[in-house]
Design brief:
alpha/beta, 8 strands
Length: 399
């Protein structure tokens, strides 16, 4: 341990400020490799041990491109088996996808202000088309398997939403709709169910998307939560035949636009009294009372409330424990926020395939994170009454 500390102290004393970060990275990488090889061989360098599995067999030189510059590595070799540093393993799927998208844009000659800077920052030089093709193919296969997997079991709750990114099509830059579906199954677990790319959110586009989900096995849908896009509403009614919840947050933004700057806080609190009720009937009665009281002064606002009553209060007919998560598209908005953060790095996508590659990788990672979470998004006890399976709906037997 003393020798290691002396080596580090010597490094700090002898390195200039400009090279210190790169030297520190190299020092840390060397120590990590020594520890990994020690575990893999069963003995430290030069140590005699009955537990030794294999011996070292020299080194191979390799350049590691980092944000601090090129770090020269000496990677240990083994007589039996092979060794590759764990810190050089491929990046997480979304980061690899981002790299692949940028590389693809670079190779195709797509001219955006950010591409050259990104390529330099990520240390990507001398990129060949075959390298890009191989990386893209590896990622695309995993994402396709994820997005086309069978959907099993019942899915009482579905959230649908769209975000927009820029892409090149036929020599033009256009906005492309990226639509995603997230659901909660009968076990109370969340999953990403689907992804699609289209020129707009037309009814036919949403209908095709929902029908594809149905062909993959989507069933048992009780409530769909989304904004009030007319094409989406029509597609939900046509394909899923379920209740529809209009996002409460989106509705409040629309309705408060008619309240004036001075009255927004008061009107918001007034309408909020309907959301505070214990059941659907009480909420609807309070909703109508608020609308009638607002009608003489803000007729347009009251009319909007009349039209939206059943849609904005649909979630009140479901278990109280679920309502905080059902009244808006917030659960899916967080996913969209991560998509926007990653896609803004690219700026303009070279093609639709690049969009699916990056967004699909983000969704795959998000789905994996949800899968390993110990806590369910909704508990089994509160989910049971929603099941169409009579065995699931049976009450527990008393001890």
């Amino acid at each position: 341990m003393t020798d290691k500390m002396m080596s580090l102290q010597t490094l700090l004393e002898n390195s200039s400020d400009t090279d210190l970060l790169r030297e520190m990275i190299g020092f840390a990488a060397h120590r990590l490799m020594e520890l990994e090889v020690e575990n893999q061989t069963g003995a430290a360098h030069g140590e005699r041990s009955a537990d030794r599995i294999t011996h070292r067999n020299g080194y191979r030189d390799s350049d590691w491109e980092t944000r601090a510059g090129t770090v020269e590595l000496r990677i240990p070799k083994l007589r039996k088996g092979s060794y590759f540093p764990g810190f050089l393993e491929p990046r997480r799927m979304a980061e690899k996808a981002l790299t692949a998208v940028i590389q693809e844009a670079y190779v195709q000659g797509v001219s955006t202000r950010s591409v050259d800077e990104l390529v330099k920052a990520m240390g990507m030089t001398g990129i060949s088309k075959s390298q890009v093709s191989r990386l893209c193919g590896e990622i695309d296969g995993k994402i396709a398997a994820f997005l086309d997997r069978p959907i099993e079991g019942e899915w009482p709750y579905i959230w649908l939403d769209a975000t927009y990114v820029k892409a090149r099509r036929d020599g033009r830059i256009i906005s492309v709709a990226v639509i995603i579906a997230v659901g909660v199954n009968g076990d109370g677990r969340r999953e990403v169910l689907g992804l699609a790319i289209g020129a707009s959110e037309a009814e036919t586009f949403w209908t095709d998307f929902l029908r594809k989900l149905a062909r993959r096995g989507l069933r048992g849908v009780k409530l769909v939560v989304s904004d009030a896009h007319e094409g989406l509403k029509a597609a939900i009614a046509k394909v899923l035949n379920s209740s529809w919840q209009r996002c409460r947050v989106h509705f409040m933004r629309n309705v408060l636009a008619h309240a004036g700057k001075q009255g927004r806080r008061v009107v918001s609190a007034f309408i909020g009294t309907a959301f505070a009720q214990d059941d659907a009937e009480a909420a609807k009665a309070q909703w109508r009372q608020v609308a009638d009281q607002l009608r003489p002064r803000v007729k347009k606002l009251a009319e909007l409330m009349d039209e939206a009553e059943s849609d904005v209060l649909a979630y009140m007919s479901f278990p109280p424990a679920h309502r905080p998560k059902l009244h808006s598209t917030n659960p899916i908005e967080r996913v969209n926020g991560e998509i926007k953060r990653r896609t803004e790095v690219v700026g303009i996508f070279p093609n639709d395939e690049a969009i699916v590659r990056l967004v699909g990788a983000i969704l795959l990672e998000q789905n994996d994170e949800w899968a390993v979470q110990r806590a369910r998004y909704m508990t089994l006890e509160t989910m049971a009454p929603l099941s169409d399976d009579p065995f699931v709906k049976l009450p527990a037997v008393a001890a």
